[in-house]
Amino acid sequence: MQWLVLTIGLISLAAGVFLAARSGRVQGHEYTPSGRPENTGPVSPTPPPPRATSEPAGFAGSSSPGVPSAAARNGSSREGQHEAAPHAGLDFYRLAPPGPARPALPPSVTVEGSRFLAGRYCTAPLSLAHPWLFGPLVARALPRALWQALAMGADQAGDIMLWPWAAGINALPDRFALLLPSLRLGEALALRQDPRLSLAALVILDLRLGILPHRSPVRNGERPPINGASTGAVTRHLRGSIRYLRQASGGAPVVVGLGIGKHLDEEMCLMEQAEADGVLLFGSPLATPLRLPTAAPSVGYPLAVGLESARTRSQDGKAPTGILLAAGGLSTPADCLKALALGADALVLDPWDSDTLLATLRQAIQSPGTMGQLLAERTRVHLTSLWQETTALLRLLGCRSPDELSPDLLLPAPTLRASLARPPSSWPPPPSASPPVAPPDSCPASSKAPVQLRPRPLLAGPPHRLRQL
Fold this sequence. Notes:
Layout: H1 2-23, E1 25-26, E2 29-31, E3 37-39, H2 70-75, E4 115-117, E5 126-128, E6 132-134, H3 144-156, E7 160-164, E8 176-181, H4 185-190, H5 195-198, E9 202-206, H6 228-248, E10 254-259, H7 264-273, E11 278-282, H8 302-315, E12 323-327, H9 333-341, E13 346-349, H10 355-366, H11 368-396, H12 413-421
Parallel strand pairs: 6-7, 6-13, 7-8, 8-9, 9-10, 10-11, 11-12, 12-13
Antiparallel strand pairs: 1-2, 2-3, 4-5
């Protein structure tokens, strides 16, 4: 009799548990089709800790359309935390890198004193303390100690290091931008958990050598235009690669590097169709003189032509370019101000273009074990002094920040276009110093009127530019 009662009790208990599971509710949890319980009871007043991102606290969102806010991105977490409700757009996919996550920003980076670069498709905007990146534009075979020294100096100055793909995964800095050449794109697509992708705050896909597998040969510095039959295949291949790089980096901006040539407008249109977040223009040093007594002419106009074309493209009502970066021979504060005034959002400073770092780099290559600390210190001093000189030139122009720069501070637009259209043989020679004027005592006796020296203004801009001088 006791065994019969025990059997009936067990059957009743099993039936109760089965009916409760069928109804879908057990102690305030609702069972989803995936088998994972979802809490439907009261929410705890303490929210779960957000995942570390590349944004400072207090950044509520971005001005670019289609970019979700930081709270929506922080709500999408990993396993074991409450999942955020699905949203429309990119937030539904919850881009999370399969590798290690990026560390949080240092407390020195604030919303007021930083520049945020966000494209139309990224979910983690790039924050810069200064309007430039620092690193070599061409991957060089440097020892590991020198890569660490350059990254240490850039980090101490508050800048982001440009890390080439060929530098490897050893001694990665805390915050860096990845420079990925098109020849290594297949290798990057095969490595799903590479820390160079998951930890990068910005991914630059360098297409100066063409697009693989549809790579075009470079002849005489120019690539032939892509014909109409292969444009669709190139766009699909490039769009899929950019989407994968964006997902592998946790929603970081993916910028495409292009060389300035006669087909720049067509290539920029192709990059917009491939859903790139921006364009990096590689060119030679700028030659557009500023109205400053310290401005010296440089060699070549290609970078100025590319920036002018990108700005004209945005003003004509075409699709916006997104993030616009400039690189090539930018080593002085005047060159940096020229590129920023022509519309660049940020610059890329190559240490091999700096005269102050070139000698130290050559010595460090010969003896990397003893020159690493000196290279890091000189890198920090170079970047710090460059920012101080750039700030001084900004105040001389009457600007409080690089955002107030405009092409009006350069040559007039008709004169600039006319000078850009002329061949290099007809470019004017560099301005020479005016001959010294003899004092009045040494003038010939026939000259009755004394020599009148007219003071030449340093700035020939509108009056509101001279308020803070």
